[in-house]
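It is worth pausing here to work through a concrete case rather than discussing structure prediction in the abstract. The textbook approach is simple: state the sequence, then state the predicted structure, then interpret. We follow exactly that order.
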Amino acid sequence: MANLRIALAQINVTVGDIAGNAAKIKEYLNRAREQHADIVLFPELTLAGYPPEDLLLKPGFAAANRQALHELLPHTHNLTAVVGFVDRGDDLFNAAAVLHNGQLAGIYHKNLLPNYAVFDEDRYFGAGDTPILFSFHSPGGERQASFGVSVCEDIWYPAGPPEAQAAAGAELLLNISASPYQSGKIASRERMLATRAADNVAIVAFCNLVGGQDELIFDGSSLIIDERGNVLARGKSFAEDFVLADLNVGNVFRQRLRDPRRRKDSLTQIYADAFERVQLTPVDYPLPRPALPKTPPAPRLEPLAEVYQALVLATGDYVRKNGFKQVAIGLSGGIDSSLVAAIAADALGPENVVGVSMPSRYSSDHSKSDAQELAERLGIRYQTIAIEPAYQAYLDMLAGAFAGTPPGVAEENLQSRARGNVLMALSNKFGWLVLTTGNKSEMAVGYATIYGDMAGGFAVIKDVPKTLVYNLCRHRNQTRGEAIPQNVLDKPPSAELRPDQKDTDSLPEYDILDAILAAYIEDEYSTAEIIALGFDEATVRRIIRLVDLNEYKRRQAPPGPKITTKAFGKDRRLPITNRYRG
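Step two, the predicted structure:
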């Protein structure tokens, strides 16, 4: 089959917006037809959105998405489409429907259900157990080809359903996915898919979801990989894309004839007998069709660009999908709020971002001027609301209760909480969503103030360690113009809640702190193992104690996008009441 055209509709859908998601699918079905595609893939659970979580427990949800699936059928004239949806039978299933020329040709149920990290699919879905292969004739009818369909996790294991499909004769392995992003995953996932293609001597087409959904980011980066493991086409990262490729399926058969591994086992016959086979009716394809322009695969992003784009996508989608138009950020003149402001401006447009400077008696002149300069360079709105009157009122009000005690953290945090009140008042008055500015290092050790700088609706850099914050700011300056003043990058970090305060007064240098936190949180190292890496024992024990004691604070933090291997939130679930120290 020398000329099969496949399309990947890498689209951004919204959880629960079944009608809106269906409308977008119809738009891309028409686009596939205009481009003379034979097969078009859509991501996992396209109609429902991913992950739908406890929406699946609502009786009408599965029925509504199934009805929307049937309404797509008239839009598949002269097309084969693979669409993710929730199927309901004796259980709920994460399913892929094969729609062919106006008919529902078959349904595949996801076989391998992930139940680790951010995934909870065993909570909702039953596992599929019916193998199925689809066969069809090529344009012109000169020969028949077969394809197998799988869903996300099914292809991550060497002995998963795609191996069985290839052993039973499938030349094409079609995988629809909602594979969430974390730093480094795009490259490792591509290596895995190339291995599956080469090991099974089959063309792999992988269509991944793109978009932000609460804590999760889906990066797209869809792929078409030939039977030798070579990338034929790659979708953009962190943006919708429509990926097209012409495939020579006959090459798969010829390559298999030369592959001695397929003579060494009996898998082919075993699986050939087990599969349900669906013969798709011939379609009157318009031939000859215009050739596709020769374009190289979309380039992969370098690591800092990848993380930055992930945060921009997550922020923009969270704001828009939840019905907000504008955001407010407390601008301190420090590195964290500078990065959040830059991300917000890039995600929403500078006209939709309001930076609020809220100086106190301890705010340095350079912090105030740095905040204003940042706002001017980004082109965002800027206003100053001094908190000194509120702070003094708090001190006066608490003077009797605090009598006889030395000033300390309680007085310091009154400033942060006054700022939180100001931002939330602006949010209530103008409908702005408040973006918080605490980074992962602070969230880990409890140095983001609860009811203060943790007050807001979305924590943009909640999963970004402090050292990465600096690197992302430098990346932003190098790639999009120097919006973040150099003084912000150079000066020692400080909360400025008391005279001459520096973060290092109570914390180790951030390169040391972040290394300890990564070992403890992301790598799950024990205290003894971290000390064995060469870190000071007293420092390690103090940092781990701070992490453990501040779980209650993190539970009250707003959601924020996951970009590391283990983020605070649904990715890391520890009891608040907990005396284990290991």
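Step three, interpretation. The CA atoms of residues 47 and 65 lie 6 Å apart. The chain has a mean pLDDT of 91.
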